[in-house]
Amino acid sequence: MKYYVGVDIGGSNIRTIFGTDTKILLKLVSPTRKSGPVDTVVSQVIEMIDRGINILQITKTDLFGIGTSSASPFVDGGTRIWTPNISGVGNDWKDIPYMIPLKSHFGEHLVYSLANDCVSSVKAEQLFGAGQGYENLVYVTISTGVGGGIIANNHLVEGKSRNAAHVGHLVVEKGGDLCGCGQRGCIESIASGKAIARRAQERGLANPEGNRLTTKEVFDLYRQGEPTAQALIHETIEYLGMMFSGIISISDPELIIIGGSVFINNKDIIMDRLVDYVMKNSFQAISKGVKFVESELKDFVGDLAGLSLIFPEEITQLWQKLKPWTKTDFPIQEV
Ligand SMILES: [Zn+2]
After folding, report:
1. Domains of the chain, with CATH numbers?
2. Ligand 1 centroid vs 166 CA: distance in angstroms?
3. In angstroms, what is the span from residue 22 Cα to ligand 1's centroid?
4. How does pLDDT run across 169-214, given as a tens digit for each residue?
5. DSSP state of 129
């Protein structure tokens, strides 16, 4: 029997998930280490996979492959990670080695893949979620950040260093707020959870103690009919609409899947207004008939993202039937 490993590298945690052809056996979670030598993150991933191999009492040769879904961007042809979520946060790392140490530890014969977390999420949604049956689709997350993944003509769009579809850094406002990427007016600097909270504060919204509101509190005020919060959210949705119109013009999709906590928790406010804006303001010859839906995998998307990059067709079909991610009987260990 072969074992499939999915890795999810985020700014806060690294998760590794171990699966077979029919089920998930184990999930390990560990806070992302951000100090030490530049290869700390890849060493941590190797350590976690070795730990899983030990727990499952198998060997390296039993592995089929390792699929990694990671915060990005990537550099050097997509073999190294240079993400503002990890690089330079309490360390002086620039680009973090990944693929080469991973392959030299586990062997060249395994199947490897590394993709941005949203790029691997569009693959996961296509194989196991709302995107099943579609060959032209886009996944966009609206969460702490804004990110995306595009599948066109059934091909994952990746680019020279696997950084394609960084839709959060589409500029929608000239001279707008400074974004973490160095540009001004990126949609991420307007519509991410963090940005909504910051912009609410700039417009004088605060909690009774005078502190900055959380994104949830801004939406709570919206629901109570508070006019500043309403104007802010309506404007945010229009900017998101500009981004989606651009994405449609670039990728000509049949389906747009939206996920991420800011969207999922407020889809009743965002979805209809967003679709209405896009349909009225985009190039209608291209956007007519494009379907907008909510992510179906939601919280499971991270578990499936890495695995989706490496699964052979026959394993995909088995997992589509059995949906092992919905069974909660596999152990989750914090390491
Ligand atoms: Zn940006």
Report:
1. 3-117+299-334 (3.30.420.40), 130-294 (3.30.420.40)
2. 9
3. 40
4. 999 999 999 998 999 999 999 999 999 999 999 999 998 888 999 9
5. S
